Amino acid sequence: MLRAHTVEDVRRAEAAAMADLPDGALMQRAAAGLAAAVVDLLDGAYGRRVVLLVGPGDNGGDALWAGARLAGRGARVEALLLADRVHAGGLAALRAAGGLATRDPDDLSAAPDLLVDGIVGIGGRPGLRPEAAAALARFPAVPVVAVDVPSGVDVDTGRLDGPHVRADLTVTFGTHKVAHLVDPAATASGALHLVDLGLDPDELGPPALEALQPDDVRALLPRPGPDAQKYTRGVVGVRAGSGTYPGAALLAVSGAGCGLVGMVRYLGPEHIADTVRTAHPEVVGAGRVQAWVVGPGGGDDAGSMLAEARADGVPVVVDADALRHVDAPMPGCVLTPHAGELAAMTGVERAEIEADPLHHAREAARRWDCVVLLKGHHTLVADPAGRVRVTTTGVPWLATAGAGDVLAGLVGALLAAGLEPYDAASVGSWVHGAAATEASAGGPLTAGGVAVQIPRLVRATLNPSGSRPLE
């Protein structure tokens, strides 16, 4: 599991570590990891030109000490000092190693190979001071490595407010930070590299949010036992589609029929049911289910679809048109809005939800007393207790019509197979994104292509070695 912590958590854990270590040892660990990451990115140090943008705090100290290490390996290192006072020990080390330190931007190389952002760290406020923004603007095409976090982002919320660094690589220390994983700041972090500082997990405490990794998904995916039959594996029902959007029913059924449950039932307009059965002859009609998927393409009938599904007393995945009819707490269910749909449900402007999705996902989960899967570049899954998981799988090509219908069906299948709503939503989102990545292979995809890829992705996740289980 990848875990991210708040600034307060990190500071508490770092203080505990420093109490047991020689003075400066933690910064040296950070600087060593940062320098190694820069060398790896540049494929060497000798002869490379590196500019450090150095602010007043420990973040700047990390950059200066790393710069000293790079200079010692033959790199040409120049530090632009953006504060009256910077880390004295780091500055002395850089100069002793042959590096340049200046307050005049005109002293810097015109075309460095790399910028190191040591402007502000986890204690910085959103936005950049004018002199820092101007320094960045001098090198618009130069790759940037951010120290711990991209300067100018809101570390604990992921919000962006004013100028900020957009990094190609962020080298972070001890644990991931919320801004690395939550949009919109996550888009400014680039690739992530974590340097282990040896922080005590007990001092860090519970994470602010998590991101599933393949081993976590493997442990959560349902598998049939030796005595399984189709009913014990779970039955998921789909109420979706209308004359205007018949394809939504097909796509939701495709997601639900990915093989993770024993049976899929479809209830909807008869002419759509005929089309569904033609495309998916294994799909059957009315009967008992362990979970419902309601709303994709439902149009004017979505309200009655939702009421009928809720009357069964089983978990419901509420998607698309059915979200307009959520007017009371929905314990045990999963809501799957994108930012526009959540805006319509809450009366909050879409732009505000996109600016602070973590806050709004948590608030929605509390308001409706259920799991909320807020779709986006990094989809968030929040539960009423405040837990959040972020999905880091997926590709931009996944922003395509019908992809959400497939996701709703997949989450419904996982619910019917027995996963708790929080796990069903987060595993479903991870699998959906990973399947899309494979289906895309670097190019365009369709929602139907994602659905086809899901069983293959599940098979590969369950059997990472490539071997098949014995019959």
UniProtKB/TrEMBL annotation:
GO terms for molecular function: ADP-dependent NAD(P)H-hydrate dehydratase activity; ATP binding; kinase activity; metal ion binding; NAD(P)HX epimerase activity. Binds 1 potassium ion per subunit. It holds the Pfam family Carb_kinase. Its cofactor is K(+); Mg(2+). Signal peptide: none annotated. It catalyses: (6R)-NADPHX = (6S)-NADPHX; (6S)-NADPHX + ADP = AMP + phosphate + NADPH + H(+); (6R)-NADHX = (6S)-NADHX; (6S)-NADHX + ADP = AMP + phosphate + NADH + H(+). Residues 10-205 form the YjeF N-terminal domain. (6S)-NADPHX binds at residues 58-62, 121-127, 148, 248, 297, 338, 405. K(+) binds at residues 59, 117, 151. Homotetramer. Catalyzes the dehydration of the S-form of NAD(P)HX at the expense of ADP, which is converted to AMP. Together with NAD(P)HX epimerase, which catalyzes the epimerization of the S- and R-forms, the enzyme allows the repair of both epimers of NAD(P)HX, a damaged form of NAD(P)H that is a result of enzymatic or heat-dependent hydration. Catalyzes the epimerization of the S- and R-forms of NAD(P)HX, a damaged form of NAD(P)H that is a result of enzymatic or heat-dependent hydration. This is a prerequisite for the S-specific NAD(P)H-hydrate dehydratase to allow the repair of both epimers of NAD(P)HX. This is Bifunctional NAD(P)H-hydrate repair enzyme. It comes from Nocardioides alpinus. The gene is nnrD.
